[in-house]
C-alpha cells in the first residue's frame, strides 16, 4: 500500500515545501513568526518526508531545551508557601486548591506544592538556564564592562550552545565532559589562549550565578587541561618596511581612522580602548594632553596616557563644540574597526595572524623597554598590573601626569613611524 503521509508538506510545482504552525511555547524564539515555510529542494516525496522528520525533531529539541518560563513563578510560589508553612505548620496549605490546579493542568503550581510539602522536590527542574544567566550577568556588569567585552561573552555563550546543538541549557545540566569536548573542538582550530578566553567568559557567568545561590554544584568549567604552549599565536611587531607602508597608505584621506592608527602606534592602547574613548576622556594639564582610558580588558586598564604634542592638538580639536558623551573618534564599534584594519593588513602587508592592530602595543611596549623607562611607569601607561606591594598597590595614588609625560617622551623617540 502506498503511503499518503504528507503532514506538514505541500507540493508547489514539482518541489515539496515544509509548512507548519510554530508551537505557541516556541514562538518567542522566532521573533513573532507564527508559521514556518521552507523549501525542501526536492520533488521526491520520500526525501521530503525524511527532511520533514528532521525539521520536526529540531523543533521538539528546541521546545525541550527552551528556557523554563515557569521558573520565576515556581520560585515565587515555593517562597510564598514556605513562608506560610513556617508561620502555620498545621494549616499552611488551606489557601491553596490542589484539586483545581490538577484539573487545570497547572504543573508549576503542583510542583511548587509538592516541593514544599516534602512529597517530591522539583527544584532541579526550575534552575536557571545559560541564556537566562547570561542576561543576569549582563544586567549586573554592563555598566562596568566595555561593549566589546559584553559582545565577546555573548558570542562565547552562543558558540558553546551551537556546539551542544541546543537553543539553551540549564546551568546545572552542563557536564564537565561537554565542556571538555568543546575545548577539544576549539583546540583543533584556535590557539591555547583563545580557547582559554572562550571558557573563561562562560565561567564568569557560572561564577556570578554561584554567588547568587543559583547553582551550588562544582563548576564544569574548572580543572581542564589545555594543549599548546603559552606563546601560541603571540603577537608579533611589524617590520620597519611594513610600518612605512602603513604610514604612507592607511587611511590617508580618512582623518578619524588615521588618528585611530596613530594613537595605536603612539600609545600602545588596545583598539577597543581607543574606540570607547569619549570627548570627556580628553585630559589637559597645561601644555600636556592625555587620554583617559576608563575601562578595558583588565582592572589595571584604567589609566591616563600622555600624547605627543602633535597628537594632542588633533585630539583637542576634535573635542571643540562636542558633547561629553560623544565618541571621540566618531565610532565605538571596535570589532568593525579591527576587521577594517585586518582586511588592509591581510591584503597588503601580511597574512600572519600574529600581526594585527595589537602589534602596535607590542612595539610600544618594546620601545618603552629599549628607552629604559622605569617599569612601574611603563606599566602605568600601558595598563598592566602594577604596584604589587601594599605600599604601591593600595596606598599609592599613582604618578602625576607630568611624570608620565617625561617617561612617555623618553619612549617616543624610539617609536618607528
Automatic annotation (TrEMBL):
- Any idea which UniProt keywords this protein has? DNA integration, DNA recombination, DNA-binding
**What single Pfam family name could you report for this chain, choosing any that match?**
DUF6538
**Domain of life of the native organism:** Bacteria
Classification via PROSITE patterns = CB (PS51900), TYR_RECOMBINASE (PS51898)
Where do the Core-binding (CB) domain residues begin and end? 128-210
Q: Which Gene3D superfamilies match?
A: 1.10.150.130, Intergrase catalytic core
Q: Which GO terms describe its molecular function?
A: DNA binding
Q: Which residues form the Tyr recombinase domain?
A: 233-409
Q: Some GO term, biological process aspect, for this entry: which one?
A: DNA integration
Q: Which family does it belong to?
A: Belongs to the 'phage' integrase family.
Put simply, this protein is called Integrase
Amino acid at each position: 500500500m502506498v503511503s499518503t503521509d504528507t503532514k506538514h508538506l505541500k507540493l508547489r510545482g514539482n518541489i515539496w515545501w515544509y509548512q507548519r504552525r510554530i508551537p505557541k511555547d516556541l514562538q518567542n524564539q522566532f521573533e513573532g513568526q507564527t508559521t514556518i515555510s521552507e523549501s525542501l529542494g526536492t520533488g521526491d516525496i520520500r526525501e521530503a518526508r525524511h527532511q520533514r522528520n528532521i525539521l520536526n525533531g529540531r523543533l521538539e529539541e528546541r521546545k525541550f531545551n527552551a528556557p523554563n518560563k515557569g521558573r520565576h513563578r515556581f520560585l515565587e510560589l515555593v517562597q510564598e508557601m514556605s513562608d506560610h508553612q513556617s508561620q502555620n505548620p498545621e494549616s499552611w496549605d488551606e489557601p491553596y486548591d490542589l484539586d483545581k490546579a490538577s484539573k487545570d493542568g497547572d504543573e508549576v503550581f503542583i510542583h511548587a506544592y509538592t516541593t514544599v510539602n516534602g512529597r517530591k522536590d522539583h527544584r532541579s527542574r526550575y534552575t536557571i538556564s545559560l541564556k537566562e544567566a547570561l542576561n543576569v550577568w549582563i544586567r549586573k556588569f554592563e555598566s562596568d564592562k566595555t561593549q566589546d567585552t559584553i559582545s565577546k561573552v555573548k558570542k562565547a555563550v552562543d558558540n558553546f550552545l551551537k556546539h551542544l546543538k541546543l537553543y539553551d541549557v540549564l546551568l546545572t545540566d552542563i557536564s564537565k565532559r561537554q565542556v571538555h569536548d568543546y575545548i577539544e573542538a576549539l583546540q583543533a582550530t584556535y590557539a591555547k589562549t583563545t580557547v582559554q578566553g572562550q571558557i573563561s567568559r562562560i565561567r564568569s557567568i557560572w561564577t556570578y550565578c554561584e554567588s547568587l545561590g543559583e547553582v551550588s554544584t562544582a563548576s564544569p568549567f574548572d580543572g581542564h587541561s589545555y594543549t599548546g604552549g603559552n606563546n601560541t599565536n603571540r603577537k608579533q611587531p611589524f617590520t620597519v618596511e611594513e610600518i612605512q607602508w602603513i604610514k604612507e597608505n592607511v587611511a590617508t584621506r580618512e582623518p578619524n581612522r588615521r588618528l585611530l592608527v596613530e594613537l595605536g602606534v603612539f600609545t600602545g592602547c588596545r583598539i577597543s580602548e581607543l574606540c570607547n574613548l569619549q570627548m570627556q576622556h580628553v585630559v589637559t594639564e597645561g601644555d600636556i594632553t592625555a587620554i583617559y582610558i576608563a575601562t578595558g580588558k583588565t582592572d589595571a586598564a584604567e589609566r591616563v596616557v600622555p600624547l605627543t604634542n602633535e597628537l594632542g592638538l588633533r585630539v583637542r580639536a576634535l573635542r571643540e563644540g562636542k558633547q561629553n558623551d560623544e565618541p571621540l573618534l566618531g565610532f565605538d564599534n571596535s570589532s568593525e574597526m579591527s576587521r577594517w584594519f585586518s582586511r588592509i593588513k591581510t591584503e597588503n602587508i601580511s597574512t600572519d595572524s600574529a600581526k594585527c592592530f595589537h602589534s602596535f602595543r607590542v612595539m610600544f611596549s618594546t620601545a618603552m623597554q629599549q628607552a629604559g623607562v622605569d617599569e612601574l611607569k611603563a606599566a602605568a601607561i600601558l595598563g598592566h598590573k602594577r604596584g604589587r606591594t601594599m605600599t604601591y598597590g593600595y596606598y599609592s595614588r599613582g604618578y602625576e601626569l607630568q611624570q608620565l609625560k617625561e617617561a612617555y617622551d623618553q619612549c617616543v623617540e624610539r617609536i618607528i613611524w
